[in-house]
Amino acid sequence: MPDADELVANALAAVRGTDVRLAERQLDQLMVGTGAADGTTAVDAALVRRLVRGLGRLWPRGWQPVDVDRITSRRIDPRAARLVRDAMAVQRRGQSDPVPAWFDEQLRELASEVRADVENVLAAWSGRESLDRADALRAAVDVLALVESLPPIAVLRPPPGTTGAATARPAGTARSGSPMLDRVRALLAKAESTTFPAEAEALTGKAQELIARHSIDEALLAAGSERGDVPGGVRLSTDTPYAGAKALLVQEVAAANRCEAVWSDDLGFATVLGWPADLVAVELLYTSLLVQATAAMLRGRAERRAGSGRRTKVWDESFLNAFALRIGERLRAATEAATDAADQAAAETAGAERLLPVLAARGEAVRERLDTLFPGVTRHRLSVRDAEGWSSGTSAADRASLDVGGGRRPRQVPGRPDDRR
């Protein structure tokens, strides 16, 4: 009789193949176990051990706990993701030092904790999920197949167990508790809750103005120190529906905050590269604007149904694409206004030529980081498939003057290239 590790290997190979009957037979073998008195417990432990080993191999390949959690939910289901969280907690318990603070913080946010010994993890999880043994084993094998199939991705921060992990700064959380960012969060929360589009856009514009000032302060502070920081990165979800429109929104928000964005469509996320304060800004704005864009789209749908049109996916997508482009142009105008004001203030002091070279050097460093991590990126061209949806989306993002610096009125440019993808 095969031992537990062989049974797991056979079931995994069968699930990866195309013979459905063979896969079911191998799962039946897992149900039976090794034939020993503790055969089923041994199978459970073998599954979890192999899953834990697979997770440990992902960290040097660029994956982070939140990435694995997100893709498991996307490709399987949230229930499977909860099994992965338990396995990540087990893996963390045996992880070699050093372990960076950001890694443990992600596990805490995912509520990952060791609830049982390795031998009992699968049984404890299936009990919480009210699964019978057959369904639990099938889900566990599917999770294992996914984890072992994930490709290498860009390494954004030193992973656990490597040089630099102990001192790695969380790329998207620099001074995230500052009073300035607290004000930004409050403005964005009001923008999300208001039912008046003009008020929402004015609040968002003010938030971008504060963010731009904060970014300039951080840039000047870093320029006056010798920390030797390099640009970091974060990954933002661009899941279906309307993944392309979400990726475009990420790109527009990133560009307004001196960051670069790359969309990995097949993996369901966009990677944003930039300096810590700017990455915090992009995360905050993207999350808020996604809520605002969805609310505006739903209002547009209702107005459209009240008329002669009917809702279509093409209309929704065109609406969201237009919204992203117009909002991006307005955010960039706010950033430019804040930069001009700061540069003018610097011109009146001894630091007249200090600001713009600092910003230029930081921008070049971000582009170099992009070229290093993503040497083969390509650009996709945005196409307008529904003129009515495009017009509605543009109007939704353009109903109010943001009045944060008097930038030029943005041009509507259907068909402009979107991000490197």
From TrEMBL:
Pfam families: DUF2786
Chain segments annotated as transmembrane: none
Domain DUF2786 as annotated: residue spans: 180-218
Species annotation: Micromonospora arborensis
Low complexity composition-biased segments: 162-175
Name of the featured protein: DUF2786 domain-containing protein
InterPro entries: DUF2786
Chain intervals for the UniProt region annotation (Disordered): 158-177, 386-421
Signal sequence region: none
